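In the design runs reported in the main text, the only information available to the sequence generator was the tokenized backbone. The following block is the verbatim input for one such run; it is reproduced so that readers can re-run the procedure and compare outputs position by position.
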């Protein structure tokens, strides 16, 4: 799972480039993926997908709208009995930039059987278009894709993303027995996206209970489950900086690890473990002093 520290750094970067985006939108910030919207895009035609992405572009106040073209890749593997999904290398969606502020999108025909997945692809590709129009693109391709996933929430399309990033599975009968396939889209997991949405709500002062409207059942569970981890992270943030380490007794810098949200002593690498119970009385007293100052 990605870290809360990483999420905050990416959101700070986007804020530095976009400013406080869509001030005053409050509980209208997130696009609502209603059953009616999913019912509309499940038609899967290029015409209805162009209309749908136009609706999304209006919601995020994009200056222009990308054009969705017919899929030019491999034909639908769902109708093939011998298709090997383990060798499937086709992307869920493709975006090209023929000119500044203009883009062309193709949605992999494979994903048109699932409105939830298709909604997430539309959100991701539209966010690519939006960020590119603002001159925001990281040189590292994988990091740029992760930033784009996160940015779907930052600009208000996160509900579509978290709903569509749930992995799906199905079983297909073969001559030598049955084979079960697992399939998912996205560069962040659905758990990651739940954490991103949680931090977006915190940043925007949006009620989490209101945000759960029009989320899938699993997405609601993930959003509920992330709250304790977020609370622990916010408690640990109070201890970032120069403190006396309870292990080596030196005044040293405590900072978050890049691999997780662990808070470590820069001298002896002692980890401050539990944000709710604390490891010993010395940390308890230290936290009390910090909270009094804040």
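Verbatim output:
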């Amino acid at each position: 799972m990605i870290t809360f520290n990483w999420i905050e750094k990416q959101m700070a970067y986007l804020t530095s480039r976009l400013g406080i985006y869509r001030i005053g939108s409050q509980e209208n910030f997130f696009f609502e993926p209603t059953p009616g919207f999913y019912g509309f895009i499940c038609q899967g035609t290029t015409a209805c997908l162009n209309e749908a992405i136009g609706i999304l572009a209006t919601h995020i106040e994009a200056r222009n709208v990308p054009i969705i073209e017919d899929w030019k890749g491999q034909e639908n593997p769902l109708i093939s009995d011998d298709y090997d999904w383990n060798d499937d290398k086709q992307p869920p969606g493709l975006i090209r930039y023929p000119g500044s502020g203009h883009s062309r999108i193709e949605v992999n025909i494979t994903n048109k059987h699932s409105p939830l997945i298709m909604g997430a692809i539309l959100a991701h590709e539209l966010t690519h278009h939006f960020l590119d129009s603002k001159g925001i693109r990281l040189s590292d391709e994988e990091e740029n894709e992760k930033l784009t996933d996160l940015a779907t929430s930052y600009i208000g399309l996160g509900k579509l993303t978290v709903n569509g990033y749930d992995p799906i599975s199905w079983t297909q009968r073969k001559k030598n027995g049955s084979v079960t396939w697992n399939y998912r889209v996205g560069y962040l997991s659905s758990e990651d996206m739940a954490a991103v949405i949680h931090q977006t709500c915190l940043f925007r002062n949006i009620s989490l209970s209101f945000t759960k409207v029009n989320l899938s059942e699993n997405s609601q569970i993930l959003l509920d489950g992330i709250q304790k981890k977020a609370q622990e992270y916010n408690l640990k943030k109070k201890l970032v900086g120069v403190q006396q380490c309870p292990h080596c007794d030196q005044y040293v810098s405590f900072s978050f690890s890049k691999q997780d949200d662990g808070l470590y002593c820069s001298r002896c690498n002692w980890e401050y473990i539990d944000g709710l119970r604390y490891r010993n009385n010395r940390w308890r007293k230290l936290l009390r002093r910090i909270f009094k100052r804040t």
